[in-house]
Structures are given as structure tokens and as C-alpha cells.
């Protein structure tokens, strides 16, 4: 039997849509994570919570977690700040505790106005961020100092629904200053580097539910990516994704980290010119740009077989005609 954890020396997890959804744990997440022998780390773009707050939330859900296992986007931003500032320097903060705790731990001085002559600006989400904060960042950035954003998520889920995220607030400043920040969080590489360095890992895998952050980021960082279908992205977006956003592996839920993950078998049928991919019981056929379900399988097997044929096709995802049965 081969599993996705074989030969891996650290397992990196996204949180929302993978470990929990809102306040509750995702089914099978708690026991599947507890059964992992390797170091486990959680990568979060949310800059409003500290590592200790995230660890406490996970521990409440039944996954005993230390703050050292949580890698936040403000933590990943610290090496970017360190390129431009030394301890004692004033840093203008747009954001909350998630950022100020990290800056103060490294000896930087937190300031909130341009009049305090900051040497850099760091911007992350906090619910109290308002126009005055964005205006102070803009005044400071007009002097030409470096600008670091924790992450560029356009939206952030809140109790009342979907709200503007840090990327949307960064965009307001970007429009006013005419340049873009350096970004630390997913899908950029610094947060993956921070996680790997923390445990000295060389062969990690990343498990996430979003193609445009978790999977794209892992691909950019050169780490195998595992899409779990308990969150945002599903068959339709997986099969039509650009190559940069294509996951290395797909699983239905976290139990499949521990079960046999057989290779997808590809065969070519000379008489018809069709190519077949089989994963478990599932079989999918590709003829030219046409992708057709032959036999449905269990769990994520059908999607694995279809994804294999999309990835090995000479046609781009936009040119392929995909059987609606594969997109459901
Ligand atoms: Mg997520």
C-alpha cells in the first residue's frame, strides 16, 4: 500500500474548508490529523488572529496544537520586513494583534501614523481597519518606503456573510499610491518557506481546499499539493483550472491521507485513438479534445482519472469538451 504521507517529512494544512468550517470541525478531520506521525503545520492567511489564538481554537476542536504549529501570514511577512528594517525601527501597521505581536516580539516599534516616520508599512486584515488607517498608510507610502501585505485574499468569511478581505483593502491603497506591495501569504512562497524552515522539512506536502491559494502556492513553492473536496473547489473548477492551479493529488476527505493511493493507469487504444485513465474502479476516456466518463468510481477516483487526462492533454482546459457527468 502507498499513501500520500509516504516519504513526507512534514504535512502542511490550510484551515478553513479543510480542518473546520466556521466553528465546527470538518467530518473525519480531527482523527485523521491526530493519526499523522510527521510534524503537522497549519498555514493561515488570516492576519487578525495570533498563532496562540489559532492553536487554542484547534485544541478546542480536539486537535492538540501548540502555537509553534501555526504559521500565520504576519509571521511569514517578518523576513520581508527584516530586509528593510532593524529592531527599534518604527513600522506603520494597518491591522491588528496578529501583526503587532510579531513585530513587537522582534523589537520593532508599532506606529499608526505617517507623522511618526515609519521605515516600512505592513498591511493585514483586522475588523477595525478603517479609512483613516488606509489614509495614513497612503501618506507614508508616498515617501517611497517599502510596503508588505500579509495576504491578498479578496474576501473573508464573517458571521454575517462574505466581507471585503485584505486584498480589497490593499487595492484601495494601491489605487492611491500607484504601486503594489510584496505579499507574504498564500499563494506566494514566503509562508511555505517559513513553515518548512520551522521544522527543517525537505519533502512536505500541502493539503488545501482552494486552487488559487493553497494549490497555486504549493505549486509555486515546489511542494506536492493535495486538494481536499471538503471546501471551496470541486470537480468543475479542478478540471477547468489553468496548469498553475492544478493539484498534484485529489482526495474526498482527510481519511484518504492514510489509505492506499494507487497510481492512475493510462492506456492508449490503437484502434480508436482514445486514451483511457483508470483510478480504482473509475475510468475516463479522452478522444481528441473530448473527455467522457466511462465508469464512475468511489470517492475522488473519478476526478483523479479525469484530472490525469486533462493534465496530459495537448489541449488547454478551455479547449476541452468535458462530459457534464465529470463536472457534477
Ligand atoms: Mg481554505
TrEMBL record:
GO terms assigned for molecular function: phosphatase activity
Gene3D superfamilies: HAD superfamily/HAD-like
One GO term describing the cellular component: cytoplasm
Domain of life: Bacteria
Record-given protein name: Haloacid Dehalogenase Superfamily Class (Subfamily) IIA
Organism in which the protein naturally occurs: Agrococcus jejuensis
Amino acid at each position: 500500500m502507498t499513501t500520500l504521507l509516504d516519504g513526507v517529512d512534514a504535512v502542511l494544512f490550510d484551515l478553513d474548508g479543510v480542518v473546520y468550517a466556521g466553528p465546527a470541525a470538518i467530518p473525519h478531520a480531527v482523527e485523521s490529523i491526530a493519526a499523522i506521525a510527521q510534524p503537522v503545520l497549519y498555514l493561515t492567511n488570516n492576519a487578525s488572529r495570533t498563532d496562540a489564538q489559532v492553536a487554542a481554537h484547534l485544541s478546542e476542536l480536539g486537535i492538540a496544537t501548540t502555537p509553534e504549529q501555526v504559521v500565520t501570514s504576519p509571521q511569514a511577512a517578518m523576513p520581508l520586513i527584516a530586509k528593510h528594517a532593524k529592531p527599534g525601527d518604527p513600522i506603520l501597521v494597518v491591522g491588528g494583534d496578529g501583526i503587532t505581536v510579531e513585530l513587537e516580539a522582534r523589537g520593532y516599534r508599532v506606529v499608526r501614523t505617517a507623522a511618526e516616520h515609519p521605515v516600512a508599512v505592513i498591511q493585514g486584515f483586522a475588523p477595525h481597519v478603517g479609512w483613516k488607517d488606509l489614509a495614513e498608510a497612503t501618506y507614508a507610502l508616498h515617501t517611497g518606503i517599502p510596503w508588505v501585505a500579509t495576504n491578498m485574499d479578496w474576501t473573508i468569511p464573517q458571521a454575517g456573510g462574505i466581507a471585503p478581505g485584505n486584498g480589497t483593502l490593499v487595492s484601495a491603497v494601491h489605487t492611491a499610491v500607484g504601486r503594489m506591495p510584496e505579499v507574504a501569504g498564500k499563494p506566494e512562497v514566503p509562508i511555505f518557506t517559513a513553515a518548512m524552515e520551522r521544522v527543517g522539512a525537505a519533502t512536505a506536502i500541502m493539503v488545501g481546499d482552494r486552487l488559487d491559494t493553497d494549490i497555486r502556492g504549493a505549486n509555486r513553492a515546489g511542494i506536492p499539493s493535495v486538494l481536499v473536496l471538503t471546501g471551496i473547489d470541486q470537480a468543475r473548477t479542478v478540471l477547468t483550472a489553468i496548469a498553475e492551479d492544478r493539484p498534484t493529488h485529489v482526495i474526498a476527505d482527510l481519511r484518504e491521507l492514510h489509505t492506499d493511493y494507487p497510481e492512475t493507469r493510462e492506456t492508449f487504444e490503437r484502434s480508436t485513438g482514445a486514451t483511457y485513465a483508470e483510478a480504482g474502479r473509475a475510468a475516463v476516456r479522452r478522444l481528441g479534445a473530448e473527455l467522457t466518463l466511462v465508469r464512475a468510481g468511489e470517492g475522488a477516483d473519478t476526478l483523479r482519472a479525469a484530472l490525469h487526462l486533462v493534465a496530459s492533454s495537448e489541449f488547454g482546459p478551455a479547449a476541452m469538451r468535458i462530459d457534464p457527468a465529470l463536472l457534477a
